[in-house]
From TrEMBL:
It holds the Pfam family MASE4. Residues 2-116 form the Membrane-associated sensor domain. The chain crosses the membrane at residues 20-42, 54-78, 98-116. Keywords: Membrane, Transmembrane, Transmembrane helix. It comes from Paraburkholderia podalyriae. InterPro entries: MASE4. This is Membrane-associated sensor domain-containing protein.
Amino acid sequence: MLTSPGIFAPGGLLGAGLQSATWIYILRHAGFALFVIAYALLKDSDPVKWPSQGSTRTAIVASVGLVVALACGTTVLVTASNAFMPRVMLDMTQFSDLWVYVAAPTTALFVLALVLL
């Protein structure tokens, strides 16, 4: 919401622009689908064979830290490179032709995640 134009400021609160908001949206949905796929593939695995046998608290803190670092890193990367990102949105209401090539793989990830679950 901080990068979406027109919500908090005309150009977005972070001043990133329309492409940043769109790419954050796409990466957020693709990331969630990848998380579900990883969960579905690992849920029946034997935890004894996992490389780390540390405490539960350590695993939780490491997971939260990794998620926060990925979210912040993705936001900074997409926001800083707004001018270089492929134009998925032409304006606030129109998609470019590139949208099909971006939305289709993300949708396919969701379908794969549902099938694996």
